[in-house]
Amino acid sequence: MADIADADDHKLQRAADAIKAAPVSNTKGGSSCDGTCGDSSRNEQEGSYCLIKSVKHLSDRGFTRLPDRYILPASERPGDGSGRVKLPVFDLTRLRDPHQRAATIEALDAACRDYGFFQASALLLFLSLSGGFSALCVQVVNHGVAREVIAGLLDVARRFFELPVAARARYMSPDVRAPVRYGTSFNQARDPVFFWRDFLKLASCQPLSAVVTSWPDEPADLREVAARYAMANHQVFMELIEAALEALGIACGRSLLRELAAGYSQIMLNCYPACPQPDLTLGLPPHSDYCLFTLLLQDQVEGLQVMHHGRWLTVDPIPGSFIVNVGDHLEIYSNGRYKSKLHRVRVNSTRPRISAASFHSLPAERVIGPAAELVNEGNPRRYKDTDYATFLSFLASTEGKHKSFLQSRKL
Fold first, then answer.
1. Measured between alpha carbons, how far is 326 from 329 in angstroms, rounded to an integer?
2. What is the CATH number of domain 1-411?
């Protein structure tokens, strides 16, 4: 097995070097790779890209140690990371109660302003931001998404990643602009070290009917299940963003609501297989999200960590819940009042983990800058205007870890 791993190390290194040297494709769909391109005579970029099939492929082959290409420098490894966090509760039903709405929005404002994370759960709990626990995250209950819709998405995601490599590889592409894209790592074409994750990106812009037919047709129910989830998830986002805008003192008129309802969104299905040496790598590096809000659904396996006061804290997974975090767009739009939060993913040696991150924002062509209501003499403009094309160009040219894109937009 060691000889196999050594041979694959050399293949992986050569493939990665070829990818980094090649220009990024402008192809909008997946590649034509059939899962065996490493042995074919196809063009160098496509063939070398597909040599690195996925970490699921490596895990299924029974690797007992990490290929060198996945080993992080000592300073970037996960370390101890023994701190944990249990989440307070944010109950969406209280937004609908005229007698409790003001207090609930005040609690949401505090979570977005001070910590950047909160959690939405289907569990019937209560709002509690007082006492000895400072609200690193808030758990939102009664989010309205049926348990079967949530369970269905996690199940179909798991079945997609269990498909043969050839079926998954139909959607492989090095192009970060591709609306449907299967890949591995974080930003594979630019990562100097790869991360222990496979993903399937599904553009889920409104109306869904315009994009669903481009989604994978295997498993056979993926389109139906993911579309049902996308619609329900988008409704939760709309309720949360309307409350956040109210907390910021921004008039949420019909035109803005129409833009949000027709905004850009995508679902990122993630697979983190069991890893032979989890202390040497990460599933995802420290990063923030490019959106207004991210709604993360995860299974019962822990892995998400949030940076708080210089420490990485593991978020206890709660079945059926959403973890919601402020994205870079909302930090820009709020002129820095709300902060996007660094987070990362750890992996483990025994249990695979499945998650689904839904990123929501305004339409892709919309230029976003600080809201006029939040800029004045005492609070000057802190960010440049930006748009989705600018972000994709940035991502295509650099690693995109930490909050590097947001830093590039600061004045």
1. 8
2. 2.60.120.330
